[in-house]
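Quick entry between incubations.
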Amino acid sequence: MEKVSHKLSLLWLNYKKNKAIYWMALPVVLYFLVFKYLPMYGAIIAFKDYSVGKGIWGSDWVGLQHFRDFFQSYYFWRILKNTLVLSFYQLLFGFPAPILLALLLNELRNEIFKRTVQTVSYIPHFISIVVICGMIVDFSSRDGLFNTIIEYFGGQSSALLSDPANFRTMYTASSIWQELGFSSIIYLAALSGINPELYDAANVDGASRLRQVWHITLPGIIPMILILLILRIGGLMEIGFEKIILLYNPNVYDTADVISTFVYRKGISESAEFSYTTAVGLFQSVINFTLLVGANRLSKAVSNTKLF
Amino acid sequence: MRIKRSLGERLFGGANAILMTGLIIVTLYPLLHVLNASFSDSGQLMAHRGLLLFPKGLTLESYKLVLSNPNILSGYRNTIFIVVVGTALNLLFTILGAYTLSRKSFMLRNPIMLAIVFTMFFNGGIIPSYLLINNTLHMGNSLWALIIPGLISSYNLIIMRTSFQEISESLLESARMDGAGEMLILWRIVVPLSMPVVAVMILFYGVSHWNSWFGAILYIRDRNLFPLQLVLREILIQNSTDSMTTGASAVDKEAIGESVKYATVMVATLPILFIYPFLQKYFVKGVMIGAIKE
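Done. Structure below.
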């Protein structure tokens, strides 16, 4: 008790000395309270039968009912599987791609060529997802660009986007196309931070380029790779759903419907099952957070790199 | 000193260069295809199959249709409002947060920072946020719903705070001795010294406002308030080009619709592609500031 009052009086002194700072921080604190923390409070409707009239607090408690309904529903396995598979594809193909690009760019001797590749590869990042998806839809149509190429190589043209078998490939490939260059910036920055003397020493020792990549370049960017990997794993259940909403249609729900798109459909666009979909969303957030903390622990244990 | 390269190294170098050239082609070709198609005559475009290396029958017809379409025009107007007002408010709030959280004398600095970082990893979810903005704050169907809920990006706040922390404390202290208040110090000393980071923030916030559409789908019901990307979505994804092809026959409609789509893509993307070369050095720097230190 005494400790608390001591702290409070220190805080009061600090406030009197730095009044201006406190007042300047107020709008920022309010912003986070209202738009980030109030929704966390609002998430308790996952345990209630929320009705707009009664409000968040006034609605009746139902305990874990919505979670039980979700786990037993037909959709549970479908959207869980789709979310994990799409995320896993992104992790397996999308995560190493920019690392590989950065390593290859690093080996280019011609500075102008290197800059050109970089400049071009960043462009797609700045194009809106609506336009990207518009292009995908157009190129995938029966007489679109992709089918032309498929036919050229002796394949059959088909309505690419209405076939569930194609969705994951399309999603993953287009994401890599869009973000490959921009994501590599971070690794290039890490690469430029490696001490050049290490390479000189390796040259003197007669190490080949490949050995130098293996023993100097890679270890130099491993901490960066691990941090980004932790973040990726923490977001494993969160997949870029804006793109899915733009690309999917009921024909491909079998492979395309993920947790977030399901929440959006059942909670906002098609029906308004607020409590149920909040429970589904909360399930996703909790798993995400657990994965993040787990990945962070693991990384700390194996390599001493950690996010927090 | 240049060490002679072995055969293996030269082979690798050659293969690498070919691969990188391939990357350039794969990245640029789809954009070139759209550009060519947008200048093409709609009839010839429909008949054509395969790669487009040049426009088919150069014409500006589809651009005329797009730029005279009322939906596109109001979309442009709304988006420009969101980009300008939104980015200005983003900057103001982010600068205030970054400055106060970079002052060592501010006792609540660490707990507030922790609370902010926590929100990057855990959130209440889409439905509670939607209910708050739409039902509790009654911001639905107004452009403010696309601006206010996103006033600060925690990631950008951290980047800016890192940069503010590097300004020497003694410089600020001497200004304080001369009787400058915190606001004056912030706007006259700290912000001018941090212009590269401010430029990065303008770019990050501005591009994200320009490209965003999902907020509008949640909150905007009035067609006159649709931002450009939502109009684009109707034209590109839902394939409704009717508003631009009124009066044409069904066959013509389909043909014109095709080239109109491509022109629409260009109209929505060109502004960003035009400013892109001027901003490149800034965003590279921004990503690096955000990445290296923390």
